[in-house]
Amino acid sequence: MKQDMIVILDLGSTENTVIARQIRDLGVYSEIHPHDITLDELNKLENVKGIVINGGENRVVDGVTIDVADELYTCDVPMISIDHPTSKCAKKYDAMPTEDEMKAFLFEECKAEANWNMKNFVEDQIELVRRQVGDKKVLLALSGGVDSSVVAALLIKAIGKQLTCVHVNHGLMRKNESENVVEVFGNQLDANLVYVDATDRFLGKLEGVADPEEKRKIIGGEFIRVFEEEARKLEGIEFLGQGTIYPDIIESGTKTAKCVKSHHNVGGLPEDLQFALVEPLAQLFKDEVRACGVELGLPAEMVYRQPFPGPGLGVRCLGAITRERLEALRESDAILRDEFAKTGLDKKVWQYFTVVPDFKAVGVRNHERSMGYMCVIRAVNTIDAMTATIERIDYDILEKIADRITAEVPSINRVVYEITKKPVATIEFE
Ligand code: XMP
Q: Is the overall model pTM greater than 0.90, yes or no?
């Protein structure tokens, strides 16, 4: 292994991630592990140079105060505890150590080297994946999103053709998105890529369905069925690659952190299709995943793309989806993205997209009264998607976008800009 590592033991503090970031920002790789890790498990981790026991407000679970196992105090690397007055640790801090204190711990006591960088991380993960997988085969659902794309690129480097990627095009992708997946992974990276165009199948199931949650259920359920059918056609697969990243693990609830929402990339596969998981990004934060993608040579549009919901354009083509409106949505979204890229707003705004409601408005085209769809532009900024504010886009830019959309998408005759914060609105419309 290339990198030295500091292990943070999770005793329920919400500051775990802050400490992990503080240590990584000082150039040393850090991983958060559950407080009940055994000495044996700890010893199996490589290059551990020091341990941080991090207590906190959730230390009392169901009336019982939790602590790390006594045997851990016998391990022979330097150890500190934070916010944990009863710890048996020799060195205790009541609050987060300052940068100087942390530096002294890392570099003087632990003698760690500041060798955490993406190049070393990728090399270490490649070695770990090779050890885990051996000569077996791995399957990966490649949506084209940041996380699955970075995992795919890493696994292709690690195990080449032992990886099979399945890309399901549910017909609700943005313009050129599936084509890009095929171009980058199938052609440029020469991956084993199974491309499934399931557009007719998804749109058939969605026909006449107007309820947003029902639409989501159909899209999610159908996705698993298509993926399962493809998995059954392949032989000898023992592992499933997943683009799980660290925030997914925290939000799904650790032993001490409460569950915010359950995450699963390909959950719900039938019992007889159980695979062991390969999750090489599980310790990374989102910005680190992007840096990892850059290190692996993925194109910037793929690595820095804005969040896109799993049900895709399905929840932006409001009400019952029709092919005509879906096409209007896809084209207007592509124009919006193009103009945002030209003006640099793509680097500033967190999420931006168009929405096409399911009603028509009166307009005038070629001197004649005509009915057309309305296109809503939404552009929001947020840290965690729980609340969001509106980007104040320059009127000239908005007007240019409106002119292009109405000129290039004949079925749209009105463009509006949505200015509602979350709350009271949500980011998506459905
Ligand atoms: P809302 O609309 O809840 O969106 O304010 C918050 C963030 O979550 C994304 N979103 C989804 N992502 N499946 C996803 O994978 C979904 O069903 C879904 N619904 C909303 C949304 O794009 C925004 O970034």
A: yes
